[in-house]
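Please think about what follows:
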Amino acid sequence: MGRPKSPRIAIVGGGPGGLTLARVLQTRGISATVFEREASPTARPQGGTLDMQADSGQVALRAAGLYERFLEISRPEGQDLRLFDGEGTLLFEHIAGSDEQLNPEIDRGDLRRLLLESLDPGVVQWGRPLRAIRPAGDGRHEAVFDDGSAGTFDLVVGADGAWSRVRPLVSPATPGYTGVTFIEIRLDDVDRRHPDVARLVGRGSMFALSDNKGLIAQRNSNGHVRAYVALRVPDGWVDTCGIDFDDPGAARARLLDAFAGWAPELRALLRACDDSFAPRPLYALPVPHTWATRPGVTLLGDAAHLMSPFSGQGANLAMLDGAELALAISACPDLDTAVRKYEATMLPRAHEAALGAAEGLESAIASDAPRGTLEHMRSRGG
């Protein structure tokens, strides 16, 4: 069966991958609807900073016709990188050149705004969580939303993240705990209020790794630093550790105890951070995660290949997924052929990236850290 003249395409999830898919389809004259569970674009903070890599995220931005605008708002200096051990010894440093565009940084909120502003009104439907999805015959699927509304679509794309509601249509896989938990912390107005921390983090990212622990900080725009306390702890640790993360004083004291013996300038991240401690256990899908192509449905981004952030590729791959799926839909004679072509490229690429992400996490939060991470950084030259 050929592709319908005006196929009904549902994109479940309004993250970078889903929005890129909608944007590239729009530039090719194909409409789609993005169903996003959040109530509005400002319903929650969008997180920290992303490096847009030349061979993935930037490729997607070019396909979307947004590359020049991206260059105007990105931060090439955010490519700076520092690696310390727990004693505060600087082991590796990369300072980005003024014309370096290998992987410039952009705040997640700025990236989302860039994509949203490029879409026609009404493309994104806010406050529309997916309740259920079921086959409707001839490769179509009916999606039912929490508000009771429903629609039948020729193609449903699960861009709905780690705990995807669409994934079970193609795969029984579920994310598993990686063995590492992050506690997210933040520092505002860092250059004025905490100049020592500002100098430690620099213009880009800072990693301090040792003894199955880490302190990882990223410079964001407007004097903001977002940091992560990384701990190799058992599954369920957040519930059993006895730390009340809603009590800033108690949480700060316990985390400082966990990093006793680390250099004072590193522990200053914990002393100076705002009174917000958000635990985030890291999950990943099995590697490899594959499935047989199924008519009328596919996945992209974390729904397809959730991996640890130590790949640095999560958002980049999601955007590349979205761009390549859109290009396949516009070029192929029918949706089944397009999905098959897309998955034949996406799944092997995701497998390779997920292997690297797992290896990166294992070497970074390790008993002999930062040896493995240092070797990796030196081999890549930053």
